[in-house]
Specification:
single chain; alpha/beta; Threonyl-tRNA Synthetase, Chain A, domain 2; Rossmann fold; five-stranded parallel β-sheet; four-stranded antiparallel β-sheet; 13 helices; 18% strand
């Protein structure tokens, strides 16, 4: 994985630790900082005891951060002890724990590498948002760009936070406690039920909008798009609407027609690799009820394959189109806005390690992908980690810029999933080459008690990664 990406992450953790030290310095124990989740170019935060944080309070915190940065200059560390993680109710840990961080009177456990040089931090700012605030952190060391809001994404995160309250699980401590007290079956059943209810509501929304002919489903890697589309098709059928499936992968250009990148590789994440002319023409044909030839793409030969068999859409049918560019307006050109519905899906866990360490949503997806790549593609953890930076770059360029254009969003994260994935991913990671990504994921998974996978329903999105799904892929 790119050193630049990892370096930014290490500096981000230092900014968060500096902010928590500043708040501790100002408020003592009367305020509890909670880093709720990553959001945009930073993190959404709240002060637990307050319903609102004023601009004046944010300026006081910001000024204190800069004062500490100038006065202290370096974060100190000491070796971690078992009691430093006792509050998480972790199982016995046999891996090396990251050190405890210290800044003046403020002490905190850490769970990944953190940059200790406060003079090397990127630009940051604090701004009011919802009932809390955002800490925005510059990625390139430059000044921050003008803020671009994502209200639909934030709404999806708040919905999942509500699910956590229903499940009484918001942290690793809560989940480990449920597992130790044998309450995990209820957590699984309710978590899966909440997702099922959400998919049913989504199908109802599609069914109630007359004239919908295409449902575009898009989202980043390892979001569970394929299982989601199959479950959506079931709920549409309950409403009397049959569906057919089409993958964007079938519309890649022949490999010799794709311009290579500067390093000679092909960027299949870029929309320029898609035969847009053919795709738009055939979508228009299907929407009007005309047949099109079925397609396939031979990734070995790098060639399009056009079959003799045809497909069409009957009056009571919709087309479910899955692909990373499904929200890109270029795909929808030529279709009336009333004829399609756009769904953005991603796995955005709301689980926290502790108050200032949210579980990274991209780490959660990477763990899913490591397991899936090993089970179905024969890749090692080294292979998957090595490709991840390229995958993330493609998401940042081709998926995330269009996420707010979705008609609805679906969060595929399951609050219990890392306790299932642990038994699959941990052995793969332990056999991988040592690096900060591998070490961070091992530390994260080591915090969880395991849950036997026999309790995961056959229709669960998680089955797309661990196997034994009721669906065929």
């Amino acid at each position: 994985m790119s050193n630049k990406v990892e370096s930014y992450r290490h500096k981000t953790r230092a900014v968060i630790f500096l902010m928590s030290a500043a708040i501790k310095n100002i408020y003592g124990t009367t305020r509890t900082l909670i880093i709720d989740h990553s959001f945009g170019d930073g993190f959404y935060c709240v002060l637990k005891e307050q319903k609102h944080v004023s601009s004046h309070e944010l300026k006081t915190i910001y000024d204190k951060m800069h004062q500490l940065q100038a006065d202290v200059k370096h974060i100190k560390i000491r070796a971690a002890k078992p009691e430093d993680w006792k509050h998480l109710l972790t199982p016995r840990i046999h891996t090396v724990r990251p050190p405890v961080l210290m800044l003046g009177e403020h002490i905190s456990a850490s769970y990944e590498f953190t940059n200790l040089d406060l003079s090397a931090l990127p630009h940051f700012e604090l701004m009011n948002y919802d009932r809390g605030f955002l800490v925005r952190i510059s990625e390139n060391g430059d000044e921050l760009e003008a803020y671009s809001d994502s209200p639909k994404l934030f709404g999806m995160m708040k919905e999942h936070e509500k699910w956590g309250r229903i499940l009484k699980v918001s942290s690793i401590h809560d989940l480990n406690k449920q597992i130790m007290e044998k309450g995990f079956k209820q957590v699984i059943w309710v978590a899966e039920g909440l997702q099922e209810k959400r998919i049913a509501a989504l199908a109802d929304d599609i069914s109630n909008q007359k004239g919908i002919r295409v449902v575009f489903v898009a989202g980043p890697s390892s979001s569970g798009k394929t299982t989601f589309t199959k479950r959506l098709a079931i709920h549409l059928a309950i409403n009397g609407i049959q569906s057919k499936y089409l993958s964007m992968d079938n519309y890649f250009l022949d490999r010799d027609k794709i311009p290579p990148q500067a390093d000679g590789t092909l960027d299949f994440e870029n929309v320029s690799c898609v035969d847009l002319e053919a795709l738009k023409h055939e979508l228009a044909q299907l929407v009007t009820g005309l047949p099109v030839n079925k397609r396939n793409y031979n990734f070995v030969d790098g060639k399009q394959q056009i079959m003799q068999d045809t497909m069409d859409l009957k009056q009571n049918e919709v087309l479910i189109f899955e692909g990373i560019h499904g929200l890109n307006p270029l795909i929808h050109e030529g279709l009336s806005q009333e004829s399609y519905y756009r769904v953005y899906i991603s796995a955005l866990t709301q689980l926290n390690i502790d108050n200032t360490h949210p579980v990274s949503t991209s780490d959660g997806r990477l763990i899913r992908r490591i397991v899936r790549d090993h089970n179905y593609r024969g890749y090692s953890a080294d292979d998957t980690i090595g490709r991840w930076n390229s995958v993330r770059h493609g998401e940042l360029s081709n998926i995330f810029p269009f996420q707010e254009q979705a008609d609805t969003m679906f969060n595929s994260a399951l609050i219990y999933e890392l306790s299932i994935l642990k038994r699959y991913a941990l052995p793969l990671l332990k056999s991988a080459s040592k690096n900060t990504v591998r070490d961070r994921l091992i530390t994260l998974l080591s915090l969880f008690h395991s849950i036997p996978d026999r309790h995961v329903p056959g229709t669960s999105i998680l089955r797309e990664f661990i196997g034994n799904s009721y669906f065929k892929y």
